[in-house]
């Protein structure tokens, strides 16, 4: 296999490390990674909307709540749920991954907002677009809305969000039909966002934090998985495979960071030992993120759980380092890390984010991680791994291809995304029905609308990318791929070497 000259590959003891020689414009990529969220907006778009080929959508997401709210786990027919984000290339609002994406956007600003320059304003707007929606979704005591839209009907159609005429059923969890994972993740998103806004709008920050406390209490008091309450509608799309214990600890960790209340530190101490997936982090499993986040919170603490958390955070790092004897991830010949499941770049961006945050912790404590076999992980090595993943995404790979739409000379043109692949309302004012978009899905033309900043699922293990709408595992962008990448790009924009 011939590699481009601008990449240098070092093979040692069966491991592959990539050192990129291609310079990237991290500032441009940062701007575009945030702009992507405007393309995912649902609801009434503001005058400041920059991705102008998108128009208002799902303005009918308003519901009459029945008087007896203890019977059904879903509400068919007055709560305003207009707004929020479409998670990927469809037109459903899945609140579980939307909340995780919001938490990660907020964490990106908390850690790296000082490096965002003029893009910070747009990052704040992206966060608030979600939090405004989550305030609505948690506005009825005893209820947390988990989803808007019938996913089966939606996935049976290929139509613009501006046109969609599929059922916009709203699904909620409640005391009798609990959903601790989705509720606790929303609490985490609200708490993290309250920290962000404390500097810019104290009243709004307070409102977010008060709601986060209430929603977390609800999630903890009425324990249960939304798989059991809403399984037929949330599965297999965003089924919770890791259980809800991690979201409860994750929510408590963010509330501890936001409030410094001992109650939440005690909650972490009592429950963190229930977490078993130290190497996992994403919209489903929060374990590695908890260990990294709490490690920084407990630097000067004598918490009983501190050794357990630090040990698991170190084990996570060693599970990713390609030269580590305990590595658990795979790497392509081109240097991209792989974990099982679809949309692989979600792992590359999320792990890169955690590596940068944990590198800061290691530097602050003057520590290196002993992975065994005379392998030590320094803060510099963690940053090197993160940069290698980001550079791969931006084009330093065997295909010489950027996996961010609109960045670089070559990038995906036929992404699995309804709004992007269909003519905009400006170009085609007539209604395009459920099956009316099939022609646009099936043809081989480039998508007519550029979803700038969208990062797709990425190439396969052989560093190959088909650029096909039908290959959604590789060609579909998601909010939870982009959200951690925002922070990573902000860091490298300020630390390019």
From TrEMBL:
Which residues act catalytically here? 416, 467, 476
The molecular function terms of the Gene Ontology recorded here are: cellulase activity
The chemistry this enzyme catalyses reads: Endohydrolysis of (1->4)-beta-D-glucosidic linkages in cellulose, lichenin and cereal beta-D-glucans
Query: Pfam families from the xrefs?
Result: Glyco_hydro_9
Give UniProt keywords alphabetically: Carbohydrate metabolism, Cellulose degradation, Glycosidase, Hydrolase, Polysaccharide degradation, Signal
Top-level class of the enzyme under EC nomenclature:
hydrolase
EC number(s) given by UniProt: 3.2.1.4
Per the UniProt entry, the signal peptide is 1-21
Identify this protein by name. Endoglucanase
Give the species this sequence originates from.
Glycine max (Soybean)
